[in-house]
């Protein structure tokens, strides 16, 4: 099978959708799928340009046997709603041009990753011309997240965007997404149940394990004096609402043994650093994103993990960072409403993590206080690790997906 993966994010991005796309193509290649990628130069999560890549010209490279077509991309220095839209549009337009030069390639499948929705019309047109099967994989309901965070105000705008989204979704041969609640959302948007496939995010369960020791990394980072480390690792953006963590840190200033550690970067990192400095919080530190080889040690080093999102965002998004936390057997606090996918998972597997209401600083402080006093019989969260072993194995997930895909599109 010849497959084009079409996404704004790809390796060597270390987090989020780009990381999963890189792992997906590697797994598909090992299954003798002929994979090519249409993508942009890496920019996430730091929202910056990296050396060695052109952001104004087209380029082609071979990465681990996969042909990667990179397209020009506008990367704003400061991220606003308008600049974010221009950023997404720049990729949609440049990648559409690239698609025009790839018509003769005639793949059997074009696998579009949402975000970004701006690429949808060009994907469907390309598939119409070449006869390829069109598949949309939804990592994030982009429009729902935007509307939930108030980026598009006005009921008429919401109604119009909803109608446009539904019309386009119905045009795809198949739609996949990462959680059962998101499958339900897609069905409610008009996608036929027979054209829906479950493709959850995964973890490298053989690499990220509870048995990894984090002491050497803790010493290397100069954090030995802290007995308890509360970790947020990943993208530091507006939609996470991480100001609530800064607020929570104020309640632990009398605990010199407790450190709130942010590891990562993003469009909102300077705002959080400013808030920590303004409040003179010596119990808050920021570190850059760590190399993948250090991730197991980083996760094991933490006594408590935070998976934070604003209200609305948690309804449509299943955080990718959670899979590795579960694989590491981490103790975690997750902010989400009870009727979301995260809420349902917490009910189905009691103890997998502690669920609290989003944007409730008092609840977060109490949850942190309670969690720091929990002593695990096994030295890690056994429920979380067992869930990862039975549900998050990458090879099993991708093989099952490809079997379902072949049934659906043949």
TrEMBL record:
Keywords: Transferase. It comes from the Bacteria. InterPro entries: Glyco_trans_1, Glyco_trans_4-like_N. Residues 217-375 form the Glycosyl transferase family domain. One of its GO terms (biological process) is carbohydrate derivative metabolic process. Pfam families: Glyco_trans_4_4, Glycos_transf_1. The keyword Nucleus does not apply. Residues 15-202 form the Glycosyltransferase subfamily 4-like N-terminal domain. Gene3D superfamilies: Glycogen Phosphorylase B. One of its GO terms (molecular function) is glycosyltransferase activity. NCBIfam families: PRK10307.1. This is Colanic acid biosynthesis glycosyl transferase WcaI.
